[in-house]
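Re: that backbone. C-alpha cells:
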C-alpha cells in the first residue's frame, strides 16, 4: 500500500504542477502585451526616444575635427585609426585617415571626453549588424582634408557654428555632468591669529655693588688701591 500511495501521489503532484504552469501561461492571453513591433509599426523611432548622452555607435563631424589625436590616444582598445600630416611652415594639419572599427568598440565614451570641439561623439544609433567585419569599419575620410582650426572669436560659418554648439553641449554634458560628480572638498579655513594678552612688566632696579676695601693680589683692586 505504501508504494502504491506514493506512486499515485507523484501523479497527482505532476498534474497539479502542469495546471499551475498552464494557468500562468493562459493568464497572459488576456493581458495587454508589453512588447512593441520593431523596427516598424511604431509611432516614434526607438532612436528618437533615447537620451542625448546615449552611448550608441560613434560618429565624427570632420568639419570641426582638429586632428589633435586625443581620441586616438584615449581609446583603450585601439579601435580608432588616424593619420595626420603637419605642415612645418603653415602649421596646417591635414587628416588623411580617420577610421573607427565598430566591431571592436566597447562604447566606453573615453574618446569623446577629451575632444576639444566634440567632433567625435556617440549617437543614438545601435543597429550595427552586418554581413562582414570589414563592413563594420567606418571610414570618415575619402580624401585628405584640412583639420579645423578654432577661431579666436565667434565662428562666422553658421553651419560650423551649429556643429560646434552641439559638440560643446555634448562635451559639457558628458565630461562635466554637474550633479553626477561628487562635490569638491572645500579647503579648511585658516584660523585667524589670536592676539596674546598683554602682560604688565615691572622694571627691576639694578643692584648696588659694595666696594672692596684694600686690594689683594687675588681679588679685585679697589679704586685708587696700589699693589704691594
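Recovered sequence:
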Amino acid at each position: 500500500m505504501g508504494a502504491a500511495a506514493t506512486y499515485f501521489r507523484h501523479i497527482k503532484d505532476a498534474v497539479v504542477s502542469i495546471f499551475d504552469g498552464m494557468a500562468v501561461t493562459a493568464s497572459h492571453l488576456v493581458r495587454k502585451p508589453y512588447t512593441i513591433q520593431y523596427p516598424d509599426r511604431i509611432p516614434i523611432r526607438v532612436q528618437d526616444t533615447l537620451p542625448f548622452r546615449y552611448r550608441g555607435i560613434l560618429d565624427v563631424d570632420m568639419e570641426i575635427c582638429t586632428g589633435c589625436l586625443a581620441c586616438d590616444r584615449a581609446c583603450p582598445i585601439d579601435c580608432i585609426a588616424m593619420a595626420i600630416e603637419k605642415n612645418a611652415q603653415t602649421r596646417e594639419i591635414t587628416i588623411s585617415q580617420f577610421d573607427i572599427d565598430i566591431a571592436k568598440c566597447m562604447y566606453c565614451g573615453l574618446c569623446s571626453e577629451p575632444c576639444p570641439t566634440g567632433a567625435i561623439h556617440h549617437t543614438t544609433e545601435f543597429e550595427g549588424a552586418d554581413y562582414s567585419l570589414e563592413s563594420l569599419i567606418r571610414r570618415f575620410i575619402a580624401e585628405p582634408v584640412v583639420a579645423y582650426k578654432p577661431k579666436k572669436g565667434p565662428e562666422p560659418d553658421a553651419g560650423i557654428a551649429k556643429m560646434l554648439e552641439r559638440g560643446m553641449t555634448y562635451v559639457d554634458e558628458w565630461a562635466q555632468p554637474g550633479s553626477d560628480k561628487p562635490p569638491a572638498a572645500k579647503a579648511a579655513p585658516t584660523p585667524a591669529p589670536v592676539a596674546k594678552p598683554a602682560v604688565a612688566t615691572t622694571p627691576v632696579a639694578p643692584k648696588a655693588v659694595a666696594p672692596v676695601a684694600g686690594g689683594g693680589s687675588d681679588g679685585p683692586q679697589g679704586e685708587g688701591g696700589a699693589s704691594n
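The CA atoms of residues 218 and 227 lie 11 Å apart. The chain has a mean pLDDT of 80.
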